[in-house]
TrEMBL record:
Gene Ontology MF: a single term: rRNA binding
Gene name for this UniProt entry: RPF2
Residue ranges occupied by any Brix domain in the UniProt entry: 28-239
Originating organism: Dimargaris verticillata
The keyword Cytoplasm appears for this protein: no
Domain of life, source organism: Eukaryota
Pfam annotation, one family: Brix
Keywords tagged on the record: Nucleus
Subcellular location: Nucleus, Nucleolus
Protein name in UniProt: Ribosome production factor 2 homolog
Annotated Basic and acidic residues bias: 292-302
PANTHER family cross-referenced by the UniProt entry: BRIX DOMAIN CONTAINING PROTEIN, RIBOSOME PRODUCTION FACTOR 2 HOMOLOG
Length: 318
């Protein structure tokens, strides 16, 4: 159990109040940690991903003896100290070369994490040196059916979007999108349970004149370029996952009576009417219907005269 700090001054109390749960949470901060042994690919990947996450990223350049899948206590303490909810850990060993572990925290405890190996890498410094605004939100492009049908790929997609997600906004400006993160799932052999390669690419977006009101879009690769492969995963149990993804009551949409939406988002309304007598509803009748009614009334009148019974017959329409 981690010790819960008790404020001893007003300044400390204000600092703890900032870390308290909010209805609308702040931008999630990431913690970039370097392992005790790293390779050049791992160091370049940590640096480039840290630059993409700026200014909501904190990087530890000193070596740390950590093994998140065996014991994440030290990592959780670092998360609590720096008030970070995302982490990226890089290491290198003979058994797991060029290793990256990306994960999330909930209440400063590990929620879920995925371990990936770098099969090939090109640092950003060797590609086009196009600068993007610090703190700009990226566009995401996920390509491949694996992100829809495989659980490990779906969870990786969710973690990556959560890792680079910035502030929530209702609208956006087209010129505000300066870079694109493309994640492509490579082919997976049918006779093998080993995941395929995942191609992580970062592109700069250039808006050119096209002669119409819509600009022509050009992409330039700015790095990093990483070929990744999933190795190990650790997911939260169902109870902890429901607790972590619970939506506050104040943010839940209020249910309006007799109004619903279909699968496409169209609004549907239900109208309640009183009991209606269909026979008394005045409707427009065609000439053929009037002739049929006149013939029916004439037959009923003739039948009544033949039997000698008095009968109220509706007069024929003129």
């Amino acid at each position: 159990m981690l010790h819960t700090p008790v404020p001893r001054s007003r300044r400390a109390k204000r600092a703890l109040d900032k870390r308290a749960p909010l209805i609308v949470e702040n931008v999630k901060k990431s913690l970039i940690v370097t392992g005790s042994s790293t390779s050049e690919w791992v160091r370049d990947a940590l640096k480039d991903l840290h630059d993409l996450k700026k200014p909501n990223s904190l990087r530890y350049t000193r070596k740390n003896e950590l093994r998140p899948f065996d014991d994440a206590t030290q990592l959780e303490q670092m998360s609590r100290k720096n008030d970070t909810s995302l982490f990226l850990f890089g290491s290198h060993s003979k058994k797991r070369p060029n290793n990256l572990v990306i994960g999330r925290m909930f209440d400063h405890g590990v929620l879920d994490m995925i371990e990936m190996g770098i099969e090939y890498a090109i640092p950003a410094e060797f590609l086009d040196q196009v600068k993007c605004t610090v703190g700009a939100k990226p566009l995401f492009l996920f390509q491949g059916d694996a992100f829809e049908f495989r659980d490990d790929y779906r969870r990786l997609k969710n973690i990556l979007v959560d890792f680079f997600h910035g502030e929530f906004s209702d609208g956006f400006d087209l010129k505000g999108f300066e870079h694109l993160i493309s994640v492509t799932a490579g082919p997976i052999p049918e006779d093998s349970d080993r995941p395929g390669l995942i191609f992580f690419r970062v592109m700069a977006i250039h808006l050119k004149k096209s002669g119409t009101k819509y600009p022509r879009v050009e992409l330039t690769e700015i790095g990093p370029a990483l070929d990744l492969r999933i190795r190990r995963t650790k997911y939260a149990d169902e109870k902890l996952w429901r607790k972590a993804t619970r939506v506050p009551r104040d943010l839940q949409p209020r249910k309006v009576q007799n109004i619903s939406r279909d699968g496409l988002g169209n609004k549907l309304g239900r109208i309640h009417l009183g009991k209606q007598n269909v026979e008394q509803i005045p409707l427009r009748q065609m000439k053929a219907v009037k002739k049929l009614r006149a013939e029916k009334a004439q037959k009923e009148r003739a039948a009544a005269q033949g039997t000698g019974q008095a009968m109220d017959v509706e007069p024929a329409s003129p």
